[in-house]
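Bug #77: duplicate submission created two jobs. Keeping one. Sequence:
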Amino acid sequence: MENVERKISRTEYFVARAVYPLFFFGAIGVALLALDRGWDLGMATGIIIGTMAVALILLEAVFPAKAEWRMTFRSFLRDAKYIASGVATGAAASAIGAVLAVHVAGAGAGPVADLPLYVAVPLAILVFDFVQYWVHRWMHETSWPLGGFMWRLHVAHHLPDRVYVLMHPAAHPLNDLLVRQAINIGLIKLIGFNADAIFLFSVITVTGGLFSHFNLDVRAGFMNYLFVSTELHRFHHSAAPDESKNYGVVTPFWDIVFGTFVYRPGVLPARLGVEEPALYPRSEQYWKVFLLPFRRTARRAASGDAMQGV
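Kept job's structure:
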Protein backbone atom coordinates (compact mmCIF):
# COMPACT_ATOMS: atom_id res chain seq x y z
CA MET A 1 0.00 0.00 0.00
CA GLU A 2 1.42 3.37 -1.04
CA ASN A 3 1.02 6.70 0.71
CA VAL A 4 -1.42 9.05 -0.97
CA GLU A 5 -2.16 12.73 -0.47
CA ARG A 6 -5.27 13.24 1.64
CA LYS A 7 -7.98 15.58 0.42
CA ILE A 8 -9.75 17.57 3.11
CA SER A 9 -12.79 19.85 3.26
CA ARG A 10 -12.59 23.61 3.84
CA THR A 11 -13.59 23.19 7.48
CA GLU A 12 -10.98 20.49 8.02
CA TYR A 13 -8.37 22.62 6.27
CA PHE A 14 -9.07 25.56 8.59
CA VAL A 15 -8.88 23.33 11.67
CA ALA A 16 -5.74 21.64 10.35
CA ARG A 17 -4.02 25.01 9.83
CA ALA A 18 -5.24 26.79 12.95
CA VAL A 19 -5.18 24.25 15.76
CA TYR A 20 -1.41 23.74 16.15
CA PRO A 21 -0.23 27.37 16.27
CA LEU A 22 -3.27 28.33 18.37
CA PHE A 23 -2.60 25.73 21.05
CA PHE A 24 1.20 25.85 20.88
CA PHE A 25 1.55 29.61 21.26
CA GLY A 26 -1.45 29.69 23.58
CA ALA A 27 0.32 27.28 25.95
CA ILE A 28 3.49 29.38 25.85
CA GLY A 29 1.45 32.54 26.49
CA VAL A 30 -0.27 31.04 29.53
CA ALA A 31 3.09 29.76 30.81
CA LEU A 32 4.64 33.22 30.50
CA LEU A 33 1.60 34.72 32.24
CA ALA A 34 2.03 32.21 35.07
CA LEU A 35 5.65 33.27 35.48
CA ASP A 36 4.75 36.96 35.39
CA ARG A 37 1.93 36.59 37.94
CA GLY A 38 3.81 34.24 40.24
CA TRP A 39 1.32 31.39 39.94
CA ASP A 40 2.12 27.95 41.31
CA LEU A 41 4.02 26.39 38.40
CA GLY A 42 2.94 22.83 39.12
CA MET A 43 -0.72 23.82 39.08
CA ALA A 44 -0.20 25.96 35.97
CA THR A 45 1.39 23.00 34.17
CA GLY A 46 -1.51 20.75 35.11
CA ILE A 47 -4.09 23.26 33.89
CA ILE A 48 -2.28 23.89 30.59
CA ILE A 49 -1.70 20.24 29.76
CA GLY A 50 -5.04 18.96 31.09
CA THR A 51 -7.06 21.56 29.17
CA MET A 52 -5.10 20.93 25.99
CA ALA A 53 -5.39 17.14 26.23
CA VAL A 54 -9.18 17.27 26.61
CA ALA A 55 -9.53 19.72 23.70
CA LEU A 56 -7.32 17.62 21.41
CA ILE A 57 -9.19 14.41 22.26
CA LEU A 58 -12.47 16.10 21.34
CA LEU A 59 -11.03 17.52 18.11
CA GLU A 60 -9.62 14.21 16.91
CA ALA A 61 -12.99 12.57 17.63
CA VAL A 62 -14.70 15.05 15.27
CA PHE A 63 -11.96 15.51 12.64
CA PRO A 64 -9.86 12.31 12.59
CA ALA A 65 -7.06 12.12 10.05
CA LYS A 66 -8.00 8.46 9.60
CA ALA A 67 -11.09 6.84 11.08
CA GLU A 68 -9.19 3.56 11.53
CA TRP A 69 -6.71 5.37 13.81
CA ARG A 70 -9.43 6.36 16.29
CA MET A 71 -9.14 5.34 19.93
CA THR A 72 -11.31 2.33 20.74
CA PHE A 73 -12.41 0.94 24.08
CA ARG A 74 -9.95 -1.92 23.62
CA SER A 75 -7.05 0.38 22.80
CA PHE A 76 -7.96 2.63 25.74
CA LEU A 77 -7.78 -0.36 28.12
CA ARG A 78 -4.32 -1.09 26.73
CA ASP A 79 -3.24 2.52 27.16
CA ALA A 80 -4.52 2.57 30.74
CA LYS A 81 -2.07 -0.20 31.67
CA TYR A 82 0.85 1.78 30.27
CA ILE A 83 -0.38 4.97 31.91
CA ALA A 84 -0.54 3.19 35.28
CA SER A 85 2.99 1.80 34.97
CA GLY A 86 4.17 5.18 33.72
CA VAL A 87 2.86 6.81 36.90
CA ALA A 88 5.07 4.46 38.93
CA THR A 89 8.20 5.19 36.90
CA GLY A 90 7.29 8.88 36.90
CA ALA A 91 7.27 8.82 40.69
CA ALA A 92 10.70 7.18 40.67
CA ALA A 93 11.94 9.79 38.23
CA SER A 94 10.58 12.56 40.45
CA ALA A 95 12.51 11.12 43.39
CA ILE A 96 15.68 11.06 41.31
CA GLY A 97 14.95 14.62 40.23
CA ALA A 98 14.59 15.74 43.83
CA VAL A 99 18.02 14.30 44.69
CA LEU A 100 19.57 15.96 41.65
CA ALA A 101 17.90 19.27 42.48
CA VAL A 102 19.39 19.17 45.98
CA HIS A 103 22.79 18.35 44.51
CA VAL A 104 22.62 21.25 42.06
CA ALA A 105 21.37 23.65 44.74
CA GLY A 106 24.16 22.55 47.06
CA ALA A 107 26.77 23.12 44.40
CA GLY A 108 25.55 26.64 43.70
CA ALA A 109 24.01 28.11 40.57
CA GLY A 110 24.64 26.24 37.33
CA PRO A 111 26.57 27.76 34.44
CA VAL A 112 23.39 28.77 32.59
CA ALA A 113 21.21 29.78 35.55
CA ASP A 114 21.40 33.52 34.80
CA LEU A 115 20.61 33.32 31.10
CA PRO A 116 17.42 35.12 30.01
CA LEU A 117 14.49 32.88 29.11
CA TYR A 118 14.72 33.65 25.38
CA VAL A 119 18.25 32.19 25.41
CA ALA A 120 17.94 29.51 28.10
CA VAL A 121 14.85 27.76 26.70
CA PRO A 122 16.11 27.36 23.09
CA LEU A 123 19.46 26.21 24.49
CA ALA A 124 17.73 23.65 26.74
CA ILE A 125 15.74 22.36 23.75
CA LEU A 126 18.83 21.99 21.56
CA VAL A 127 20.91 20.29 24.26
CA PHE A 128 18.09 18.00 25.34
CA ASP A 129 17.16 17.04 21.80
CA PHE A 130 20.75 16.45 20.70
CA VAL A 131 21.03 13.67 23.29
CA GLN A 132 17.49 12.43 22.68
CA TYR A 133 18.12 12.36 18.93
CA TRP A 134 21.17 10.10 19.17
CA VAL A 135 19.69 7.79 21.81
CA HIS A 136 16.49 7.51 19.77
CA ARG A 137 18.37 6.89 16.51
CA TRP A 138 20.62 4.38 18.25
CA MET A 139 17.55 2.45 19.41
CA HIS A 140 16.23 2.21 15.86
CA GLU A 141 19.35 1.70 13.79
CA THR A 142 21.99 -0.08 15.89
CA SER A 143 22.09 -3.87 15.63
CA TRP A 144 24.86 -4.84 18.05
CA PRO A 145 23.72 -6.53 21.30
CA LEU A 146 23.10 -3.49 23.51
CA GLY A 147 21.42 -1.76 20.57
CA GLY A 148 19.16 -4.80 20.21
CA PHE A 149 18.19 -4.52 23.86
CA MET A 150 17.46 -0.82 23.48
CA TRP A 151 15.27 -1.46 20.43
CA ARG A 152 13.30 -4.13 22.32
CA LEU A 153 12.94 -1.65 25.18
CA HIS A 154 11.66 1.02 22.79
CA VAL A 155 9.54 -1.05 20.40
CA ALA A 156 6.55 -1.10 22.78
CA HIS A 157 5.84 2.44 21.62
CA HIS A 158 5.85 1.34 17.97
CA LEU A 159 3.65 -1.74 18.26
CA PRO A 160 0.30 0.15 18.14
CA ASP A 161 -1.06 0.42 14.60
CA ARG A 162 -2.85 3.71 15.30
CA VAL A 163 -1.87 7.09 16.74
CA TYR A 164 -4.03 9.38 18.86
CA VAL A 165 -3.47 11.62 21.87
CA LEU A 166 -3.90 9.06 24.64
CA MET A 167 -1.59 6.46 23.06
CA HIS A 168 1.40 8.71 23.79
CA PRO A 169 2.14 6.93 27.12
CA ALA A 170 2.11 3.50 25.43
CA ALA A 171 5.75 2.67 26.10
CA HIS A 172 7.82 0.32 28.20
CA PRO A 173 8.08 1.87 31.70
CA LEU A 174 11.86 1.36 31.76
CA ASN A 175 12.19 3.19 28.45
CA ASP A 176 10.41 6.16 29.98
CA LEU A 177 12.45 6.05 33.18
CA LEU A 178 15.91 5.34 31.78
CA VAL A 179 15.73 7.39 28.61
CA ARG A 180 13.13 10.14 28.61
CA GLN A 181 13.01 10.95 32.32
CA ALA A 182 16.71 10.43 33.03
CA ILE A 183 17.74 12.73 30.21
CA ASN A 184 15.01 15.26 30.92
CA ILE A 185 15.60 15.51 34.65
CA GLY A 186 19.28 14.61 34.84
CA LEU A 187 20.67 16.57 31.92
CA ILE A 188 18.59 19.74 32.16
CA LYS A 189 18.83 20.06 35.94
CA LEU A 190 22.50 19.17 36.22
CA ILE A 191 23.43 21.73 33.58
CA GLY A 192 21.82 24.23 35.91
CA PHE A 193 18.90 25.82 34.09
CA ASN A 194 16.79 27.83 36.50
CA ALA A 195 13.25 26.87 37.53
CA ASP A 196 11.54 29.32 35.14
CA ALA A 197 13.46 27.97 32.15
CA ILE A 198 12.72 24.36 33.14
CA PHE A 199 9.02 25.18 33.52
CA LEU A 200 8.74 26.79 30.08
CA PHE A 201 10.88 24.05 28.52
CA SER A 202 8.57 21.42 30.07
CA VAL A 203 5.41 23.11 28.77
CA ILE A 204 6.85 23.18 25.24
CA THR A 205 8.03 19.56 25.49
CA VAL A 206 4.72 18.16 26.77
CA THR A 207 2.72 20.22 24.27
CA GLY A 208 4.83 18.73 21.49
CA GLY A 209 4.29 15.26 22.91
CA LEU A 210 0.51 15.65 22.87
CA PHE A 211 0.49 16.95 19.30
CA SER A 212 2.98 14.39 18.01
CA HIS A 213 0.40 11.59 18.37
CA PHE A 214 -2.65 13.68 17.47
CA ASN A 215 -5.08 11.92 15.08
CA LEU A 216 -5.92 15.05 13.12
CA ASP A 217 -4.49 16.00 9.74
CA VAL A 218 -2.49 18.94 11.12
CA ARG A 219 -0.88 21.18 8.50
CA ALA A 220 1.77 23.10 10.45
CA GLY A 221 3.65 24.52 7.45
CA PHE A 222 6.93 26.28 8.28
CA MET A 223 6.59 25.32 11.95
CA ASN A 224 7.58 21.77 10.95
CA TYR A 225 11.12 23.12 10.50
CA LEU A 226 11.15 24.48 14.06
CA PHE A 227 9.23 21.95 16.16
CA VAL A 228 8.25 18.29 15.94
CA SER A 229 4.52 18.16 15.37
CA THR A 230 1.97 15.66 14.11
CA GLU A 231 3.12 15.69 10.48
CA LEU A 232 6.69 14.74 11.36
CA HIS A 233 6.25 12.30 14.23
CA ARG A 234 3.46 10.42 12.47
CA PHE A 235 6.00 9.33 9.86
CA HIS A 236 8.29 8.19 12.66
CA HIS A 237 5.52 5.68 13.47
CA SER A 238 5.29 4.48 9.86
CA ALA A 239 5.73 0.75 9.32
CA ALA A 240 7.94 1.50 6.31
CA PRO A 241 11.59 1.71 7.49
CA ASP A 242 12.61 4.14 4.73
CA GLU A 243 10.29 6.82 6.15
CA SER A 244 10.20 6.00 9.89
CA LYS A 245 12.91 8.59 10.67
CA ASN A 246 12.42 11.97 12.42
CA TYR A 247 14.18 10.99 15.66
CA GLY A 248 13.90 14.45 17.23
CA VAL A 249 11.53 14.84 20.17
CA VAL A 250 11.05 18.60 20.42
CA THR A 251 12.75 20.06 17.36
CA PRO A 252 13.65 18.62 13.93
CA PHE A 253 16.90 20.63 13.95
CA TRP A 254 19.17 17.61 14.45
CA ASP A 255 17.19 15.53 11.92
CA ILE A 256 17.80 18.25 9.36
CA VAL A 257 21.50 18.47 10.27
CA PHE A 258 22.08 14.70 10.17
CA GLY A 259 19.86 13.85 7.18
CA THR A 260 16.98 11.98 8.82
CA PHE A 261 14.29 14.62 8.26
CA VAL A 262 11.12 13.32 6.56
CA TYR A 263 8.41 15.84 5.69
CA ARG A 264 5.70 15.12 3.11
CA PRO A 265 2.98 17.79 3.35
CA GLY A 266 -0.56 16.49 3.06
CA VAL A 267 0.51 12.83 2.97
CA LEU A 268 -0.31 10.22 5.62
CA PRO A 269 1.63 6.97 6.11
CA ALA A 270 -0.05 3.98 4.52
CA ARG A 271 0.42 1.84 7.63
CA LEU A 272 1.62 2.46 11.19
CA GLY A 273 3.44 0.13 13.55
CA VAL A 274 6.40 -2.18 12.91
CA GLU A 275 7.39 -3.62 9.56
CA GLU A 276 6.82 -7.25 10.60
CA PRO A 277 4.29 -7.33 13.47
CA ALA A 278 4.32 -11.16 13.55
CA LEU A 279 7.78 -10.98 15.16
CA TYR A 280 6.37 -9.24 18.26
CA PRO A 281 3.59 -9.66 20.80
CA ARG A 282 0.50 -7.53 20.22
CA SER A 283 0.58 -4.15 21.92
CA GLU A 284 -2.30 -5.06 24.25
CA GLN A 285 -0.36 -8.09 25.59
CA TYR A 286 1.14 -5.97 28.33
CA TRP A 287 3.23 -8.55 30.19
CA LYS A 288 4.65 -10.07 27.02
CA VAL A 289 5.63 -6.57 25.88
CA PHE A 290 7.06 -5.83 29.34
CA LEU A 291 9.31 -8.92 29.15
CA LEU A 292 10.32 -8.29 25.54
CA PRO A 293 13.59 -6.41 26.32
CA PHE A 294 14.82 -9.37 28.37
CA ARG A 295 14.21 -11.99 25.71
CA ARG A 296 16.29 -12.86 22.68
CA THR A 297 13.81 -11.95 20.01
CA ALA A 298 13.38 -9.70 17.00
CA ARG A 299 15.25 -6.46 16.58
CA ARG A 300 15.69 -3.83 13.92
CA ALA A 301 18.70 -4.36 11.68
CA ALA A 302 21.38 -1.67 11.48
CA SER A 303 20.39 -0.86 7.92
CA GLY A 304 16.95 0.11 9.15
CA ASP A 305 15.28 -1.76 6.29
CA ALA A 306 14.73 -5.21 7.78
CA MET A 307 13.95 -7.11 10.94
CA GLN A 308 16.01 -10.08 12.00
CA GLY A 309 16.22 -12.53 14.87
CA VAL A 310 19.00 -12.41 17.45
